Every structure is written in structure tokens, then in C-alpha cells.
Amino acid sequence: MTRALLSASGVRVAFPGRRGSPPSRAVDGVDLEIGAGEIVALVGESGCGKTTLARTLLGLVRPAAGTISFAGEPLAYTSRALKAYRRRAQLVLQDPSGSLNPRHTVYEAVAEGLRIHGVHRSGAAEREAVAGALARAGLRPPERFFLRYPHELSGGQRQRVVIAGALVLEPELIVADEPVASLDASVRGEILALLLRLRDELGLSALVVTHDLGLAWNIADRVAVMYLGRVVETGPVETVLTAPRHPYTRALLSVLPESGAEPVVLAGEPPDPARIPGGCRFHARCQVLASGAAAGVADRCRTEPLPVLRAGGEERGAACHWAAAGGR
């Protein structure tokens, strides 16, 4: 991997509990790096903290602890610094219909970012910037879409408009939260291909937040698997998805049709983030521990917490006592 464009170290985010209950530890000590021109997939089931982590990396949520750096500089939380940062790092949400104002034309939706960030351009220069962003997002000829409204577009076209709205500011990083979850299967591949093309042509970095390991396989250079506020396995996507070490990653992979494995049904629901169990936070649902295959480290799984896993570079790792002991 080249230099780290975005890095997080020891990031923790907690939300106040209700009626005197303990705070909810949504992100509970995460180290993560995204290199220049790299696509990283952040994978996990609903409620694991991946969207909170993504919002924190963008400066939308201030961490209770830890640091976030962009291009080697720690993120500052003044209004001026955050505004400058958000021009360089843009968010793409999963629901394009909710992201677009139904009363704004496509032109207005894409030009809005330029106006918010005070990018003063003449009318002709603004029009050229909007047209260029729409063209890069795959809407050609772009002028044909200028006066259309969101309801006049297909789901895939609306998502391209949202991506164009990010691209018009010429960011270095895009954080895409479930970017194809609301799209038909026929359109999903087109949007994923677009993200790959933007990486190749513009050197754009991306953090793709998803629950779908199949999507990670198709688009990512590296994957970080998240469970209950922590990254539990990370490494190059092909290495992790062909030979997963953590039982949680194995369970997620087992439900993919192409895996050929017997689907693993995890017991119960993820624990309450306000009451994270001791030891390995996955041990109460771990299929390997339940089967007796991890008998040699069972006590450690239930009592010894695991250190924070560094998710960066070409190294791979798994926060698992059984994997560390050579479990297969």
C-alpha cells in the first residue's frame, strides 16, 4: 500500500445510555488506514458500528478518544477546518432518493456543493464543472440531465447524480455507505464498475461500508471485518475471503451462494453495545467455541480480551484466540 491518506488510531465513540444505563460503545477502539488510490471495504452486520465509524472518519461525529488524520495531519474540529476537510472527503449515502431534494434539478443538486464550499466560478465555469462531474459519473451527454428532476430518473441514474455531487468538488476520498443496497441487481454492477473506474482514472480512494462480503470481493483491495465496535479481521481482500481466520468472517462468507459451504447460523443476536461481554466479544455466538473445536483456548476466549487490530497495509490479522493458536 502507498502512504496512508486517512488513518484512525484508537477511535472510540460512545452514545449516552437511556435512563441511567451505561453508554453504548458504538466504536470501541478502532485502528484503520486507507491508502491513496485504495478501496477498503468495511464489512459487518447491522448494528456493528460501521456507519458510526464512517461518519466519525468524515468528522460528522467527534470521537470520545483516539485520533483521525488525513494526509498526515490530525483532523481539527473547528468549523473552518471541517469545511475544508469535507471538500477533500465526501460522503455518498445508500438511498439516492433521500439524498436528493425532489424540488432541485440535477444541475442544482450537483452545483450545490460548489456553492456551499464557496468555490466561486462564473456561470460558464460552474456549468463546465457540473457537466464534467456528471460525465465522470456516467451520465452522458451531461447537458441532457441538467433540467431533470430526481423523480424523472431511474434508481441507478439517481445514484450517479449523488456520486457526481461528490465528484464536482474533486475529493481525494469517498466514503460510500451501502452504495448499491437500494439498487436492482442489474444496476449494482454498473455502480461498482464506476467506483473502480474512478479509482483507476482519478486515483480516488474509497471506504465502502457494506454488509455484503460479495460486494467487497468485487470492488475492494482490502477488507476490514467489524463486529460489535471492533475490527476483528483485516487484510487483502482475496487473502481474507479465500482463507478467513476469524469465525465471524467464516460465518459471513458461508451464506454467499458461491462459497459452497454449509451456511453457519449464529446463535442469538449481537450483544448490547452498552454491555459488551468480557473476553473475546464474539465468544457468546462463536460456532467454533460452541462445537468444542476451540477447547484448548476456551477459557481464554471467555476471559481474555483481545488487543486492537491494526487495519492497514498488506498485513493481515484476526482478533481471535483460536486463530492465534493455529486453529483451522
In short:
Belongs to the ABC transporter superfamily. 35% of the residues lie in helices and 21% in strands.
Description:
- This protein has 328 residues and is an alpha/beta fold.
- It has a domain of 73 residues.
- Helix content is 35%, strand content 21%.
- It is built from 13 helices and twelve strands.
- The strands form two sheets. It has a seven-stranded mixed beta sheet, sandwiched between helices. Strands 5-4-1-2-11 form a five-stranded mixed beta sheet.
- Helix 4 packs across helix 5 and helix 6 runs parallel beside helix 7.
- The chain is globular and about 70 Å long.
- InterPro entries: AAA+_ATPase, ABC_transp_ATP-bind, ABC_transporter-like_ATP-bd, ABC_transporter-like_CS, Oligopep_ABC_C, P-loop_NTPase.
- Belongs to the ABC transporter superfamily.
- Pfam families: ABC_tran, oligo_HPY.
- It comes from Streptomyces termitum.
- One of its GO terms (molecular function) is ATP hydrolysis activity.
Task: For the structure shown, list the relevant keywords.
328 residues, alpha/beta, seven-stranded mixed sheet, 13 helices, 35% helix, transport, ABC_transp_ATP-bind, ATP hydrolysis activity, nucleotide-binding
Furnish the topology, listing elements before pairings.
Elements: E1 4-15, E2 24-35, E3 39-43, H1 50-57, E4 65-70, E5 73-74, H2 79-88, E6 89-92, H3 96-99, H4 106-116, H5 123-136, H6 155-167, E7 173-177, H7 185-202, E8 205-210, H8 213-219, E9 222-227, E10 230-236, H9 237-242, H10 247-254, H11 287-291, H12 298-303, E11 310-311, E12 317-318, H13 321-324
Parallel strand pairs: 2-11, 3-8, 3-9, 6-7, 7-8
Antiparallel strand pairs: 1-2, 1-4, 4-5, 9-10, 10-12
